[in-house]
Input
Amino acid sequence: MQSTDISNPDYFHKVVDCQWACPAHTPVPEYIRLIADRRYADAYMINWKSNVFPGILGRTCDRPCEPACRRGRVEEEPVAICRLKRVAADYKGDLTGRMPTPASAKNGKRVACVGAGPASLAVARDLAPVGYEVTVFDSFARGGGMIRSQIPKFRLPESVIDEEVGYIEALGVETRYNSTVDSLKSLLDDGYDAVFVGSGAPRGRDLIIPGRQEAAANIHLGIDWLSSVSFGHVEKIGRRVIVLGGGNTAMDCCRSARRLGGDDVKVVVRSGFEEMKASPWEKEDAQHEGIPILNFLVPIEFLHEAGKLVGMSFDKVRAEYDGDGRRNLVSTGEAPVRIDCDDVLVAVGQENSFPWIERDIGIDFDRWDMPKVDALTLQSTNERVFFGGDAAFGPKNIIWAVAHAHQAAISIDKFCHGGDLRDRPAPDVTVISQKMGIHEWSYDNDIQNDMRFKVPHLDLGIALKDIKEEVELGYDEQLAFKEAQRCLNCDVQTVFAPKLCIECDACVDICPVDCITFAEDGPEAELRTRLSAPALNLTQDIYVSDGLKTGRVMAKDEDMCLHCGLCAERCPTGAWDMQQYLIDLAQVSPIKTRTTRQGVQA
Amino acid sequence: MTYMTKPKMHHPDLKTNALGFTRRDYEGPVSTLCAGCGHDSISAAIIRACYQLNLQPHRIAKLSGIGCSSKTPSYFLGASHGFNSVHGRMPSVLTGANIANKDLIYLGVSGDGDSASIGLGQFAHAIRRGVNMTYIVENNGVYGLTKGQFSATADKGAKNRRGVPNMDEPIDMISMALQLGATYVGRSFSGDKDQLVPLIEGALMHKGAAFIDCISPCVAFNNHDGSTKSFDYVREHNEAVNRMDVILGREPITAEYAPGQMEMVRQHDGTYLKLKKIATDYDPTDRVAVMNYLQEHKARGEIVTGLLYVDSDADDLHGYLDSVDAPFNSLSDADLVPGAGALAKLNASLR
Ligand SMILES: Cc1cc2nc3c(=O)[nH]c(=O)nc-3n(C[C@H](O)[C@H](O)[C@H](O)COP(=O)(O)OP(=O)(O)OC[C@H]3O[C@@H](n4cnc5c(N)ncnc54)[C@H](O)[C@@H]3O)c2cc1C
Ligand SMILES: Cc1ncc(C[n+]2csc(CCOP(=O)(O)OP(=O)(O)O)c2C)c(N)n1
Ligand code: SF4
Ligand code: SF4
Ligand code: SF4
Ligand SMILES: [Mg+2]
Output
């Protein structure tokens, strides 16, 4: 097969499973090593550059990095990447001199951002420091979007939001809070060079079944109810509460209800437990707070007496799979299940709505009434208008909103300066050999056998009393160090130089996970079956190199490699080297936060 | 040398053998030899062979002398018995151990210096007595441990690192072993595990004196141009006479080769050596023909490898001595010291 082209930055980027999976491509192993070094501020700034909200994300991120983490493949559980991010935020101390400052000279370009959620704020963060005049509009009195309006304070304290929204507001961004944009046309007429739409997916889906009208006073749409709770308009709920829905919003609803007087709170879900949309840890946290999750129950009606909600009835169903593997929920035919309650929270989905965007200003909408947005450039069919976050492709999460924002900012920058939007800037790749002596590396290559450490929680008795009391306490420094040591340093790459190899087999013999093979060449699919350990995980590349004296090829399965460096230690000729690949995705602003263990780099 | 321990983590698909052990369970601590030393590859081959043969680690005794090669038993079979003897004295210690407990599997690991220089006499006698053992010489043509002086197996004309040639005749341990009556003789190369692992497996299952000469480049002192024991030189001059597989138990014997190309040799314990012939005129059961073949090919500068000779009906030292079935170390004092009466009787019978 074709020898691997390791000069393509994607090749080694993919080996860093967590960074590759992170929508914003945060250099995870680098910040984890800095945490182990107790260089929390450096770790924070690396995060801040990539994902803009380390303190917020360190508590709330959907963490697509963790299911991708290599540790989960070679051991049982991934490194607690997300909660280590929080450690960087918790212990960072003084950041004086590290944050960019407002641009000293403006570049004459004006950009309007609709909404002050994470998407818009990250666009502002990227554009303001290089001279753009950025104006952010939001209907609410303060910035943060759903981070502030939806995520309950027991998961994310207000002070963390204030701090990280504050860093952006301090960059010379003009904020127009308490002002709803009710016409995109007039905004465009105001002469902005570009408009970024980061208005989110603000509408909760309703459940229209018998009794909905009659019992309306005690039926609440989840996201509306959560924002009322966040802004202090709602401080109580009935004793018995049913939460409908299996997503993260449902989990936030039930846990909030538990803290506002609901002592008998149940989550009722149509599907089975496994298929629920909520993240496993959200479900775990809810159950831990004494909230049962009842599955395979489809709502039939809201029951009411004398105009007041008294309960709900459900049809019990089971999952059946048709020939195409599609799941159907089929009634079991049993008698309806009745559950009495005082209040119902409906958390069955979230939708976009753009009543303020005129349909005759060149923005095409598709048949689901979503704007047509280019996935690469985030540009709409009106070249001056860009979308990002939940507004672009439907509800996702904070880290995707940030990732969109970086790309949209690059597009806006190119658009304002007449560049080709499809020509995306390459990442900045820094390669540093880790070799210090024959058996000394500038990274800690020894592998720790510890299992994942649990994050300490507040005593439940206290946690359930106050909805503003943060329930997770975070790792202390000792636990953080130990958890950080579980990281396998997947960004320290095994780089092979075939010309130096004498085919002595030392690397093959030492490799603890049987990654390396010297074999006759063959087509990839066939070669994969002939390796020391067959490479059956097709989502992971094999690194193939020809140019050996015997005419064989070196084939290394990237799947299980521990990045322990033993191959390089046992190689007599230095044909293997351990090289750190720092891959920094391109951004508009030249924010200087790159810190390596060798020192601060520009 | 490497300071960290090899991580316990292994590939999740790593298989277990009939005893429930993975290959990693047959390992020892990380080697302290020079990185790239051929000896480490031989250790890896031994680990693989013992794993594949389902050997119980505590039923194996590994014995060695002095040298880099003789250090290697520290780095494999961490759960087996071991004895590191005086320089060149491994064969007599092994013989003694085998006399005391014939039920263990004996693996002697030695170097060309340890066996062909200081230990030549010991080597010769252990072989000619037919001690039931696997005797591996990790042959690099130099005294690696003492910084690379030529050993007694260095070829005449081979050059050292400074370009000075060796003027002494080499000792050919394969020819000696054949002459002295070894009943399983093979030569291999540390850089060819496909050949080496089955050769070690066959030797471990063989009853009688099994000898393997394994060329094993010393990366520090004998892997340069002008050396005849370097990776490049051995790869260029290697002439395998056959390829072997060890067939355990009653696995089906499939004839995938044309007649005359494949040969099944039944070993004493019921295992089969499946030999795929490369040199079609080569008969590994004819000792005299083998000796001639080796001399002819050596004169042409070829390094002949493979299973060179096997006598599958061989007996061993205990057979020649007609010793009791039970190992001596299991006999009681009463069995071993029959008393004055028995002695008087024996003496009387000799009068
Ligand atoms: C209950 C709940 C819990 C969640 N928990 C998490 C979590 O733990 N982790 C996670 O990653 N994600 C979570 N999410 C999702 C996350 O909040 C969103 O994906 C994210 O906030 C989207 O960011 P955004 O910038 O696109 O829009 P938003 O955060 O929705 O911000 C949009 C802003 O635009 C304003 N706006 C809209 N229209 C106008 C207009 N016409 N004029 C002026 N202002 C306007 C709105 O007031 C709002 O402030 C959760 C969502 C919900 C509902
Ligand atoms: C009685 C005695 N004489 C000499 C030595 C010095 N000495 C140590 S190792 C060695 C040679 C080992 O050569 P070899 O068996 O080929 O092992 P290698 O290191 O090459 O694997 C010698 C001469 C010794 N240790 N003891
Ligand atoms: S770094 Fe080298 S020795 Fe370690 S697991 Fe990866 S390939 Fe194997
Ligand atoms: S240890 Fe080095 S020289 Fe030996 S086979 Fe591996 S890469 Fe090649
Ligand atoms: S000196 Fe030679 S024989 Fe000894 S460990 Fe080093 S390479 Fe191996
Ligand atoms: Mg030697």
